[in-house]
Protein: Integrase catalytic domain-containing protein
Organism: Austropuccinia psidii MF-1
Amino acid sequence: MGNIGLTGNFEACKIGKTTRSSFKKDLERTKVPLEELSVDLMGPITPTSIGGSNYVLVVVDTATRFSWVRFLKYKDKAKDKLIEIINKAENRLEKSVKRILTNGGKEFVNNFISNFCANRGIENITNCPYTPQHNGIVERLNCTLLDKARAMRVETGVPKEIWAELINTANLLRVRTSEGGISPWEKNFNIKPNLKRIKRFGCQAWVATISYKRSLTIELKKVSWSDMSPNGVSTEYSWKKTSGYSIKRCNIQ
């Protein structure tokens, strides 16, 4: 059989095989703590968390990789939580945020955020639609937190409604974990993190409830350790009830 000659314009074939060009590595980033923050909002997440949240605000410091998470019932509250994080971080570190990177969602691109940034001299940079690679630092962190949360849930067997506590614990552990010999916590605060009070998620514990109305009667309840506050001085514990799970916060010793 002779060779079949192929002639003509293969433009249609080229168009059909078109793919996006590979993204280059992140642009040159600052090495100054708190100068640049990458921001994203995950959700809605179902089912609603036991605390009533459906969204997770994730903020990460480009220089130190220190990260904050906040849980929201409604996405329009993201702007308030973002400003709260910025104000507290600036006050504690005595540094100023110069730039925030967002995905261009309405929760971050609005008059409220625009006025806040203008008054503080903060540049609000938004990535192009459908290109999360432009804000890759926080996008990769989202995947990391979800992977860790899923692993802890599989290990402990807690219900899906505990997802907020799982993600929060995943973040607390991540910022205290060394990366190349130094953790994001130490990079951020210039001090090593205190790991003494961290327990395994879901481990059994006993909580003593003292009743002052009944001659200092002490009631012991078997619970599961489920979360720790960012400052490490209080913890959450949970126990199963006939109607689901209940979570309380208490001081730890």
Summary: The beta strands are 36-42, 55-61, 67-72, 99-102, 123-126, 204-211, 217-228, 234-241, 244-251.
